[in-house]
Records
---
Amino acid sequence: MRQLIDFLIPHFCAGCGTPGAALCTLCAEQFHAYRRVHRSALRGLPTVSALAEYSDPVRRVLLQFKEYGRRDLRGHLAEALADGFRRLNAPPGSVLVPVPSHPAAVRMRGGAHMSALVSGMKRVLGAAVRTAEPLRLSWAAADSVGLTAAQRSANLEGRLFVRARRLPSGPVVLVDDLVTTGATAAACCRALVAAGVEVVAVLTIAEVGKGLR
């Protein structure tokens, strides 16, 4: 049984490979370099706040979590996001809304990774926040990897939906794992605003160095 547990739950740092915890102290510190990223010119995108820049070991950790099923990282990432949320000084009653994943990615990964992280943030923050999942991405949307900002925006046109029954009452903080060009986050913000929701901030784990500049 112990061998099975060791196989299912890796005992090495996802960032650097050091034996021991899922995330060593040095790699964990990389997720607390909180900063506000310069606002892009994309329509509808509020100021983006990132926990880190998308470079190693942050990149490796996110890939291990998203693509390789390292669920033991969820608590670490949720706590880092919760810390980032506290620094936002968001309005009371703010609602955490995850950026939706493509249905194919959800099926392949066995769940929506951002939904899991937002739920983890709620457990850390408690009554200070609420959560909602009003956004849905259709199967018709293509994989956005490698697309420019304009291509990402076009890819989401008519493929990003707001579920009216799940719309939150209160200011929204949109939560994502990675902001590259900002086009996806901007499209999500525009969709929510068009539905009558106020989006006060975007919080992401990482951002690509020159993506929003």
---
Amino acid sequence: MKELENEFHRKARLVAKGFEEDSLDEIPKNSPTCEKQSLRLILSIIASKRWSINSVDIKTAFLQGEKMQREVYLRPPKEVKATGKVWRLNKCVYGLVDASLKWYEKVKATLLDCGGTVSKIDSAVFYWYNEKGLTGVLAVHVDDFLWAGSSTFEKSVVSRIRDMFKVGKESCESFKYLGLDLSQENETIVLSQQDYVRMLKTVLIDKDRVKTSPLSSSEQTLLRSKIGQLLWLARQTRPDIAFDVAAISSKIKSSTIEDLKKVNKIIRKVQNDPVSLQFQNLGHDVKFILFSDASFGNLPDGGSQGGYVVFLMGDDGKVNPITWQSKKLRRVVRSTLASEALALADGVDCVISLAALFKELMHNENDLMHTPVDCFVDNKDLYHAIYSDKPVGEKRLRVEINAIKQLLQGGELKEVKWIQTNEQIANVLTKHGASGQDILRCFEKGLLNSSLL
């Protein structure tokens, strides 16, 4: 049953047991979907272009994909009553490992035929432009499209999509997309997850249970489920809970009642303090802002947590949130300097790709070779190592430091700046107890501390 405009409609789907097919490893199956940071960057561009956001849902998408190149036979469902017969598939049905890929190939061919260009950075992002610049953009997530553009773009491209595919629900300016609540008013787009947050349930815990009591197998399963729900929330709209959720996740095998109580506390926190992301019109002159931070050896296994947050900032100091990460560093390090350097390297890797995507989408609208990128760190040793000719003592670390130096020399990074620890809004991504108010204020108000401008 599916609810549509307060009415319930019966739906049935033919599902193949694709896992039973021979030679699964030899079948190409990887299908791109629009990345989170790409979607937020697109929302920022849409706001600055003063375009309306739109979504399109494609009906029975897999059955509209490219024709199959191999022979696959299917036993009909018993309800068909086709005894002694098998079906040969012409299209990939739901359940086959390459169903998503065949659908993507059809979408890509159609959009390219409509004059679109597929992004070199994110293969699920397509854009259109003329001699004046960008005229339209479309993000693909399987059968859900998000698009925006000029009136000409809608007439020449979106209308062809409606003709080429069986289109389901279409929405404009206020709708749910991939579990995210999107709304638009004037030149601002608001992204939130309030409907999702309201559905979160705390875990019932017997008051007589001691907090150090180990969890039963069923309780561990329940804890994993809650962690999964909160991790998705942390990655989409709530960076302030990312470290605490990751810390609980890291000790799941030795989890206790105390961990369940921590999860309940996080759920109550996100329900009592709602958060939304604001995407504003930033104007023409923009740059990327990266804050990176690390905590040396603060994880139970001796590892270190690294984190970063990236904003797109206009010349008046307004910012739009683009992406963030809170993650265990990829190797064990020997010093605070090393942990901070690896966290910065991870952030730089991300922001460089975002800057490339931005330049790609803003075709012919910016004469700069690179979109400026400013990096902020609160570790003086790292700052001095980057701007000093003297190599750091830890030889393995020289690779990371020199890579950042080369990006500065080549202009892909504009500057690395040192800031006070109390100005480092990425702190909440790497340590327990750090305030998340600064980063959330940037998300909701769209303004950075004026001292950082």
